[in-house]
Design goal:
With 459 residues, this protein is of the alpha/beta class. The chain has three domains: 125 residues, TIM Barrel (Alpha-Beta Barrel), CATH 3.20.20; 136 residues, NAD(P)-binding Rossmann-like Domain (Rossmann fold), CATH 3.40.50.720; 110 residues, FAD/NAD(P)-binding domain (3-Layer(bba) Sandwich). It is built from 17 helices and 19 strands. Strands 7-6-5-8-19 form a five-stranded parallel β-sheet. Strands 10-17-11-12-13 form a five-stranded parallel β-sheet. It is globular.
Length: 459
Amino acid sequence: DEYGGDFAGRSRFVVECLQEVRKQVGEDFPISIRISAEEIIKDGYTVEDMQSIMPVLVEAGADIIHASFGTHGSPGGITSAPIEYEPGFKVELARRIKEVVKVPVIAVGRFTDPFIADAIIARGDTDMIAFGRQHLADPDFLINAREGKAQETFECLACNQGCIERLLFEQGSIRCAINPETGQELEYPNEAAPKSKKVWVIGGGPGGLTAASEAARLGHEVTLFEADKEAGGQVLLAARVPFKEAYGRWIEVLTARAIKHGAKIVTNQEVNEDMIHKGQPDKIILASGAKPLKPDIPGINLPHVCQAEEVLKGAVAPVEAVVILGSGLVGMETADYLREKGIKDISILETEPRSPVSTLTSHGYMLHKRLRTAGVKFLFNSRVIGIKEESLLLERDPDKQQELKPVQQVIIATGSTGRNHLEDFLKQENIPYYLIGDARKPRRIIEAVEEGARAAWEL
């Protein structure tokens, strides 16, 4: 019909929409149109196609062109790009659109740093930069930059846990994994608590640090105890895998924020029952994290068997022929870590028919693609029934066994369980406490941060 076929027909619908909007708002009201400057799908519009249509849209009434990219059908969740993509990775599209129009052009694409955005504008690639998810992570990021406090900003981790995945897959309202205020602004307490309490936070992972920061901000006397040499918990391990350096930067900023609010952080300190008796805290927030599971398999205690966290910490050196037990996020990212280290012979064993890391998530898609491209072998429906010095015994069918060799190293990534050994004592002594994060149940950053913040708000 008249809305398809040739160039004029295919552009008719958007042209008529623009013309009607212009008619309704008048000549003095600015109209911005957001377009996919490149659809990044088979037979989709290219940037050359969009260059052809842009002058037509400007003539129809567009005052600003917002040059986005991709569609919901584009691979890798590129429209909400994961952390694998660097800030401004598609700014060239805005530059190409700017070549054919005289109205301002907006670029977009995982921007987190206003100084990078400033440099891109200064070199003439675009007129403006749009920040989306970064506003959810820290709505004060532009103010911080202007006031010389950029080091205090939470940088968006592009994890999509609270924004994209929560909206699309969980049908929930919007959140941010690292900013508990997002989506809860009306519940977020801004005034100090009516009475300051002595609060101990046991554990310095993301949940514990968030709890300490929020409780101190609300005027409580807060001490956080961390058994390790530095706070951060499992996130410090995540920061060691490819592309996730920003996770470590977030922990640094969160730790500094907790200290700025008045929390005292004590590292290399295990909390025991005697300490609690002597310290007499009013409330305890138990954020002691999780410990890795160790499956009951013959040979599990052989010297070439280790936990994934030992590999990521650098405590165990990688070798050439590696088998990882478990294809969850820890197992997959450990394989990615080894791939980056140059290890070629990597196998991932999974008892289920598929990995729990979904390719429907943007990071999951990129991770699967990267590992398969590198030649990492996946063995699904495979149960390890024995570990030998240079091989594994597998059961792939009820009546079928297989020996996998050579195997120089076996890495365990079969999940974790909450480390909540103090909970029974706290119950017996009637000491008020909150159990949060992985200590309650191993999950994601978003749950740990949410529970840490809510524990602090409810003190």
